[in-house]
């Protein structure tokens, strides 16, 4: 039988580990977890659930602590199926159990499932639910973190925040806590999660964190619905979220490109070498496609998260960038890293077979992603000659000098 993990007296992790998931929300990951929590007072509450097909893990872990029918309440912080997929089964096994959710979630659940027989209780912001025996849940509406229906649940006596997707990470591991997995690894997974999902919501992140601060509620542990639980570094992940939402970046340049015969790749190399001579960090990301092992777009946006400059290159194919570059830029436009945080600068470059045009298109798409264009598009025909190489080397030096002036 699968076992629950005690995280505090009367509080257990009872979620599911998905060891095999490799692509989700458009980005790559080494598996994930669907975290659910059991809070036991005189009454028992189950917070969140699992993706469909993983209900058996949830049930076995619960029953390692108490019989399933002892659950008095279900808290649904978010309607997305990776958290709510177990609800149809649980509402059959536990008919009439009250399910706590936001008003918007009630409407959303009705679009996902047949909720006609559900006993739905819509919460008011800061509403309390006493479980007795020193266990009180408080519900905080958190719209657009990251869906409009989202809410946080706070267990006051134990100072635990259950924020659903916020502060989460996609990682499957045998460790349940930050100090077990290692803080550096945990933070890196959290950064990728933020870069791919949370950056467009940065103003709302800051607003909600400000509201929580104003409430004066102490938070000693953060138990998200994906990944590890922050028990030793709760303050560190909160501070990291504040920095990411404010666009705090390093003296770092991310160069993103694809290449046909390594002409554009050569230009990228000279830009990187020029920047390196100025003592800045460079991430050199060849986009992944079927020809070779490159960097997936979800890892590229992680690199961009704390970069001050984004430089994108592609040869021209029928007047446009290569599909890998175009697809990456459309993905970047949805995230809008330069619009939600402090400014990021950049430019476009590439090779052509006579006509050209890809760098101009890249420039337009970078602007739509909020990147401030620092230099006009740079193109060359066929392979870069010695003058082109010198030009790209100097461009690398100059943009490195520019970002060192930026806050």
Automatic annotation (TrEMBL):
SMART domains (alphabetical): Lactamase_B
SUPFAM superfamilies listed in its UniProt record: Flavoproteins (SSF52218), Metallo-hydrolase/oxidoreductase (SSF56281)
Domain named Flavodoxin-like: residues: 253-400
Lineage: superkingdom: Archaea
Classification via CDD domains: flavodiiron_proteins_MBL-fold
Entries under Gene3D superfamilies matching the protein: 3.40.50.360, Ribonuclease Z/Hydroxyacylglutathione hydrolase-like (3.60.15.10)
E.C. designation(s): 1.-.-.-
An example molecular function term from Gene Ontology annotations: metal ion binding
InterPro entries recorded: Flavodoxin/NO_synth (IPR008254), Flavoprotein-like_sf (IPR029039), Metallo-B-lactamas (IPR001279), ODP_dom (IPR045761), RibonucZ/Hydroxyglut_hydro (IPR036866), Rubredoxin-O_OxRdtase (IPR016440)
UniProtKB keywords: Oxidoreductase
Full protein name: Nitric oxide reductase
Organism phylogeny: Archaea, Methanobacteriati, Methanobacteriota, Stenosarchaea group, Methanomicrobia
